[in-house]
Amino acid sequence: MFDMMKKLQAAKAEMDKIKARLETIAVEGVSPEGKVKVTCNGNRVIKGIEVVDTTILTDKKMLEDCTLMATNDALNKAEKVNETEMKSAASSMMPGMGNMFG
Fold first, then answer.
1. H or E stretch including 23?
2. Distance from C-alpha of 80 to C-alpha of 92, rounded to nearest angstrom
3. What is the dihedral of CA 61, 66, 69, 74, to 10 degrees?
4. Cβ neighbours of residue 41 under 8 Å, at least 6 residues apart?
5. Which domains, from first to last, does the chain contain?
6. Measuring CA to CA, which residue among 73, 81, 3, 5 is closest to residue 38?
7. Residue whose C-alpha is closest to residue 51's, from 33, 63, 69, 68
8. Sheet containing strand 36-41, strands side by side
C-alpha cells in the first residue's frame, strides 16, 4: 500500500512538472490572411491577441471572425502540444507504474 502511495505521489510530481513546462511553451494561431494572431501556452491559456491588419478594426464582424479563427487555431495547436507532452510523460511513467495494481 505504501509503495502504491509513493508511486502516485511520484506521478503527481511528474504531472506538476509537465504543467509547469507547458506554461512556458507558446504556440501561435493565425486567422486566414494573417489578419489576427493569438498566442496561447501549452496549458491552453490565451496569452495575447494581436491585430496585424488594422484595417479590420472598422469591420466589427470581420474582427470578431478573424479573432475567433485565430483563437481556435491557437487552441488546437496548444491541444496537440499538450497531448504530446502528456503521452510522453505517461509512457515514461508506465514502466514504474506497471506493478502498481498487481
1. helix 2-24
2. 18
3. -140
4. 22, 23, 24, 25, 26, 27, 47, 78
5. 22-94 (3.30.1310.10)
6. 73
7. 63
8. 26-30, 36-41, 46-51
pLDDT tens-place string over residues 67-76: 999 999 999 9
Are 41 and 79 in contact by the 8 Å Cβ rule? The answer is no
Q: CB burial class (10 A; 0-12, 13-18, 19+) of residue 88? A: exposed
Local confidence band at 60 (pLDDT 50, 70, 90 cut-offs) = very high
Q: Which residues pair with 41 in a beta bridge?
A: 26
What would the grid cell of residue 65 be? 471572425
Give the tens place of pLDDT for each residue, 74-101. 999 999 999 998 888 777 766 554 444 3
With H, G, I as helix, E, B as strand and everything else as coil, classify residue 28. Answer: strand
Which run of H or E residues covers position 75? helix 60-97
- Calpha distance 79→25 (Å, rounded): 12
